[in-house]
Amino acid sequence: MPYTIARYAGYCAGVRRAMEIAFRAAREAREKGVCCYSLGELIHNPDAVNALQREGVISIDRVEQAEKGSIVLLRSHGVSPQVEEQCKNLGLIIRDTTCGSVRALHEIVRSSGQAGIPVILVGEPAHPEVQGTAAWCPGECHIVQSERDVDALPPMERALAVSQTTFSLSAWERILKRLQERISFLDARCTICPATQMRQKEAQELAAKVDAMVVVGGKSSANTRKLYEVCRAICPRTILVERAAEIPADFIDIHNHHIGIAAGASTPDWSFKEVVTRMNDMEHIDQETQQEPVAQAEQEAQEPQALTMEDIEKTVVRIRTGQTVTGTVVQITDDEVCVNIGYKSDGLIKRSDLVDQDVKLGDEIEVEVVKVNDGEGNVLLSQRNIVNRKAWEALMEKYENGEYIDAVGKEAVKGGLLASVEGGVRAFVPASQLAQRYVEKIGQFVGQPMKLKIIDVDKQKKRIVASRKQVIEEENKAKKEAAWEKLEVGAVVTGIVRRFADFGAFVDLGGVDGLIHITDLAWSRVNHPSDVLQVNQEVEVKIKSLDRERERIQLGYKELQPKPWDNIEEKYPVGVILERPVVRIRPFGAFIEMEPGVDGLVHISQVAPTRVNKVEDVLQEGQMVLVKVLAVDPEAKRISLSIRQALEDESVLENNELEIPGEAEEAPVEEAPVEEVPAEEAPTDAE
User: Fold this and answer.
1) Do residues 603 and 678 lie in contact, with contact meaning Cβ atoms separated by under 8 Å?
2) pTM of structure
């Protein structure tokens, strides 16, 4: 009898997590000497509930039934915020097993209610998840289960539609269509758990291919009932059972029937595996009954002498948990691989625990014994454990040697970042160890490759705490050491402008920063470093001084630039007339900028064709004027200029190239005596 097991059968991730939390809580309660309660059935499956009861978990209906100081499990279907608050007020220790999909649904409903948007919750009104979700809505909330319920809703222009996470996808689509007809502005969000959707879809496809379907799970479970209804609609020969004993004796009446097996999200693995075993037994029972007399006679005739214990021990391999053995692949299914390891029973290895997913029959593989007996006589194996162990050993070796490890940020959590390091091991990086400065958004590191240094290890729990900050500090220190070794006073080096301050520019020299003081940026006066340089600009600088103890490097930039007074006589020969701006006005005259770093002086007697009392009467700063070079003194760094003589130049007057400053007079101009310029006002390098 061929049979096919649905790929998504048994516990979903949310239910598996809930059961794991419950078993840990039960152990915690025993250690503390208190009771462990489940507020209602943790999940809707009697076998799972019974398993928890055997561990000491007591199911109660009301919070008041729990003793103060005891542990209470909030079931995977979720509870109302009022119940959570009541548990805290009664001094109970809460262990929350609420499914992640349900928690997300609570948040959507709460946000919509706070915004004043009516919520339409599609689901079973009596289901605990629906009741708990409705309680999270602070505003208007309507529960609908059918299209008839939609027609009974009050008129509304706007609403949010969400669904019970285990609701039927086809039913949701029908109800949604009716809602869209009634409500103009409907925000519809399908909150059915993706695992539930995949489970129902696969069950539909499987039911269409087989002769009969067996759905395994709790009869009070909503997701199991939906699974049963989906299968029965396609394959009429579908039954729902909680355990193998419930399969009718006449269910398999033809040996070549193809049977499909599906299981709800709250169904324990052992339940549907038991069903498979039961059907196999039912198929062969008639054949075995008919052949029993013959087989017994043949066995008696061929039975050898009894084996001694020594003979048995020679033929059976001894194994222990954690042992590494080599076996041969003898069977492959969608979920598991069966390996012959020479033990009295073959070992089973889950696909998720295989390193090489392309194994074939007859392949020899190295595996680790996880459990000698899983309760059903199976040996559980893992190939992933071997890889993880080797990866862990390699990490510990790097930890002891102080070496760095490669990692990728995976998830921002409270207090830091979870990173995946070599071999798939996870490391926790505290927020204070992520960077040299405070990190406001830890999420920016998710998906980013990084180097880490292990700073703490819990070998028993195989937990790693690592630091990115220490790596950065050590690398920077190494760069600084290397950079300082290469630096020497007077050397010309290349660097990158990193930042500005009012007093200068900081340049990265490959691990260390040097400062170009604002007076060392240019031969002329500089108001701000950004007037000369740009951030990230590559520049050549000269090292003027080094102070390793104080980690200070003084750099010069202007020393490598042409000096403005070089070849000044060639650039500005006596007699040449130029147009230049007025940059400063003084009582004795006006300074004219010939070029950046080079100013010339027009004495007050030379600013206009006529005598003037104040320079400001005829000139303004920024004004463009024609000047004639009278004298150039490179050593004193002085240039004498005249506006008056430039205006008197006949060629200039003929070409009418200048508007004469001041009013011209017909009377002859008496040349004013040249006055001495005060020394403190004479042009300097800085001017």
Assistant:
1) no
2) 0.41
Partnered with residue 328 across adjacent β-strands are 340, 364
Catalytic residue, from 129, 242, 336, 368: name it: 129
- Gap between the terminal Cα atoms of the chain: 102
Q: Is 129 a catalytic residue?
A: yes
Q: What is the pLDDT of residues 404-418, one digit of tens each?
A: 888 899 999 888 999
Residues 6+ apart with CB under 8 A from 426: 410, 418, 419, 420, 464
Quote the pLDDT of residue 198: 77
Q: How many CB atoms lie within 10 A of CB 603?
A: 22
Q: How many CA atoms lie within 13 A of 155 on its CB side?
A: 0
Which residue is listed with tokens 């091991």?
Answer: 425
Q: What is the pLDDT of residue 117?
A: 93
Structural tokens at position 335:
């979920």
CA–centroid distance for 105 within its chain:
22
Name the phi and psi angles at 84, rounded to 5.
-60, -45
Amino acid at 414: K
Phi/psi for 572 (5° steps) reads: -130, 75
Distance CA 338, CA 60 (A): 42
Q: Give tens-digit pLDDT for 26-80.
A: 999 998 899 999 988 888 788 888 888 888 899 898 899 998 889 999 888 888 8
Q: What stretches of 83-166 adopt beta strand conformation (E)? A: 93-96, 119-122, 141-144, 158-163
Residues 6+ apart with CB under 8 A from 268: 10, 11, 45, 47, 48, 51
pLDDT confidence of residue 377: 65
Give the helix, strand, coil percentages of the chain, each rounded to 5.
Answer: 35, 30, 40
Number of alpha helices (DSSP H) and beta strands (DSSP E) in the chain: 16, 32
Give the pLDDT confidence score for residue 311 in this predicted structure.
Answer: 40
In whole angstroms, what is the distance from residue 238 CA to residue 19 CA?
A: 28
- Please identify every stretch of the chain with a pLDDT value under 70, giving residue numbers as ranges: 1, 13, 252-256, 269, 272, 279-317, 344-345, 375-377, 423, 650-687
User: Strand 404-413 relative to strand 416-421: parallel, antiparallel, unpaired?
Assistant: antiparallel
Q: Which of 393, 432, 401, 394 is nearest to 415 (CA)?
A: 432
Beta strands in 567-637 (DSSP E): 577-586, 589-595, 598-603, 624-633
Q: What is the pLDDT of residue 283?
A: 56
- Give the integer Cα–Cα distance in Å for 494 and 491: 10
- Specify the DSSP element, H or E, that contains 51: helix 46-54
Contacts of 531 (CB under 8 A, 6+ apart): none
